[in-house]
Amino acid sequence: MKHMGFVLALSLALLVCMISLGAASDEPSVIISGPTLTAAISQSNVCEGENIWVDGTAAGQDVVYIWVCQKGPCTTNEYGAVICVISAETEAFCRIYEASVTYDEFSQLLPVDGTGTYTVFVLSKGRDGTSSAVDKYAPYCFPYGTGCSKLISLLEDEATKAGSDDLYKVLTYTVMECSSVSKQYVVAATASRVDADTVRVSYMGGSDANQLSSMSISLSGAGTGGNCGGATGSLGNTVGGTTTIDCNGATATDRIHVIATAKFYDGSTQVILETDLESTYTATPTLTPTQTATPTLTPTPTPTPTPVPTLKSLTVSIEPKTATVKPGETINYTITADWSPETWSGVIDASIKVEAFGFAKEYQHSFDTTGATPPFEHTIPLTLPENVPPSTYKAILSASAEGITSSSETALTASMPGFEAILAIVGLLVVGYFMRRG
Predict the structure, then answer these.
(1) pTM for the whole structure
(2) Which among 93, 135, 392, 433 would be 20 to 30 A from 80, CA to CA?
(3) What count of other Cβ atoms lies within 10 Å of the Cβ of residue 69?
């Protein structure tokens, strides 16, 4: 029995040494960064006749492939099934682009061929430089009789199937029929004097904050000793952003006239602040969140904005709960998200962190729930690095939207090729040893 215990202990020690050879080495290591892909639409809504772009990065690539399609007219048959028809007219709503990548960045002008919601599928080939999705669906938009949603599903199937290391993003934008009458946007700015000759302007946001592109500011009306009439400044579209403008030569008794003009993504402009700053001012540069000026330009009554549902709760779960994958292979996890109220829609940012014994790798993914109703399922492909040590890892899913976070866990076992054979050989050695002893 003492010999048996010694042999078993020795065998286990040998196995541990074989598995952790690389980890204990003092040799310098070379980390090779794999391909990455990011993509974003310049704006979520666009008027007919305007331009909209998809921009992003694709490290290590010369070109990215972009499919853009729109669902054709849909009807409901006598059995209650929804049928979307692809006709010669709606066929034009499917386009394919090969966007060149320069210094890891790309930009592509997107079609605005009519009102409706467009779906954009951006794909970057993986490290192996091949893609069955490109081979099958890049020569033409989609097979006859296949709608937009089916095309996106086919592309996702090819990009996530076993052996594929393609990277992709699915985005949407909406083309609207905009009135020729200029819309009065609901945004606001404030102005205050920091000292005698310095003015601070702050952007406070509003219900139409996501439509503002930039803001220009001009100052006038200073005393005879100043040159404030030529002072200008600008401000971006970040809510809470501030800028200061010098009105050189103005004294504490001079009145400064401030005009802030906002420019919106539809190309229109609107004066959102016009006020006179009196001689009194607060020297401490503290931003007062209360608007101190009332805009004087009111050309038309401001329409009541449609209330946007606010996310109250978010829960996520991940399947399968257990899985065994070899290093370098891909597993598709199904993420189920539930939220309230059901009418909420937006982007959910998700990450899956795989960790154990000091090893950790995080996979980022985002998906848009616009038009979906909970519970909503989404597939996230996860490829284990080829050099990951065999072990059982904890895969932690974390998802967040509008400041609400939810998480779920699963177990992922990384099996080393030939690991079972090593155990079998050790077992045979042990048996042989005792047979010779007998």
Answers:
(1) 0.36
(2) 93
(3) 26
Using alpha carbons, select from 176, 175, 211, 170 the residue that is nearest to residue 40: 170
Most confident segment among 142-151, 163-172, 325-334, 355-364: 163-172
Contacts from 230-234 at CB under 8 Å and sequence distance 24+? Answer: 233/201
String of DSSP letters for 180-249:
SSPP----EEEEEEEETTEEEEEEEE-TTGGGEEEEEEEEE---TT--GGG-EEEE-S-TT-EEEEE-TT
335 with 377: CB under 8 angstroms?
yes
Q: How confident is the model at residue 333 (pLDDT cuts 50, 70, 90)?
A: confident
CA 20 to chain CA centroid, Å, is: 37
User: If you write DSSP's letter for every residue of 341-386 in order, what string do you get?
Assistant: STT---EEEEEEEEEETTEEEEEEEEEE-TT--SSEEEEEEEE--T
Angle at 55 between CA 367 and CA 337, to 5 degrees: 5
